[in-house]
Amino acid sequence: MIYDQLTQDLAAIDQAGLRRRLRTLEAPCGPLARVDGRELISFCSNDYLGLASEPALIKAAVAGARQWGVGSGSSHLVSGHFAPHAALERRLAEFTGWPRTLLFSTGFMANQAILPTLVGRGDAIFSDELNHASLIDAARLSRAEINRFPHNDMATLEKQLAASTVRRKLIVADAVFSMDGDLAPLPELFALAERHDAWLVIDDAHGFGVLGEHGRGSLSHFGLPASPRVIYMGTLGKAAGAAGAFVAGSETLIEWLVQRARSYIFTTGSSPLMACALLASIDLIEQGDARRQQLHALAAQLRAGLDGTRWQLLPSPTAVQPIVIGDNRETVRVAEELFARGLWVPAIRPPTVPAGTARLRVSLSATHTEAMVAQLVDALKELQ
Fold this sequence. Notes:
Largest sheet: 7 strands, mixed
CATH architecture of the largest domain: 3-Layer(aba) Sandwich
Distance between the termini: 46 Å
CATH topology of the largest domain: Aspartate Aminotransferase, domain 2
CATH superfamily of the largest domain: Type I PLP-dependent aspartate aminotransferase-like (Major domain)
Strand order of the largest sheet: 3-9-8-7-6-4-5
Number of strands: 13
Mean pLDDT: 96
Shape: globular
Structural class: alpha/beta
Strand content: 15-25%
């Protein structure tokens, strides 16, 4: 039977050490998690600034629910675009320095709006090989020719661009690579986009709120302008502590997405109460230099504590601090040993990362303490 094939395929996943496990949390998102009645220190979350359970956001969400209700009732273009949505789009544009922004329910949907709406058959996409799955899927949906270049390899990218004779070119990259924690060379990418008259799409899911002046993101970090050829995507469910995403760009670019982006047009608008919470979040991000300093200090503590041990971290200047182990089963074993010690660190395996590079992904938050990081360092030293 066709159903039996699923059982066999699941068995193969088990054999390869690739079975994922769904855990249910019994406490709000924060540095301390409760799973199956156990309290653990969590190094899993992308809540980099510790805003997911911030009282100011909760208060704004409750007030938003009382005033605007829970659901939006329709797509943004029918009757689902409320005053808080419009206010948040204006606030994000002001904060990031772009003429206009457009809200989406998820970053995945935002990326699926950008690429297929800007390029198609007869065009070409130039994509870093370590880009997020949402960008990979969006590139496939566009039906444009896809050219992958080795991670952060600007020489290969330039050769690909120079050799291409298509009508429209689009370069796309994560700003912060979520499984490595390193940065894309955005100044070089921008220079190549200028030289070859290409769009440049930047996915700043893990940089927005953390990098740049007052957390304005990776373009601010590198001092790059809000150019009309750049399309900037930021997510609101990581450092911003809530949910959703936004695309920032020129007036013309955003209006084109409003008119043509299927993942915007044909979906129900996000809850207005979420927009209310996010308006409070942007204020805290802008005022959050102390939180960002705490993140940098914790990353330095972790790296210093593991220096000279078996556990070598990838060269990451961000809140994502990966420890590459390589073997799938060994990575799972170490993660389980840490879990038994009250430390929750996810084991990341293919296809999320390339084969042979399974790793522990340590994700730091400004709400972690030095004592929590010291506990993780001590446990890893015990497991050498």
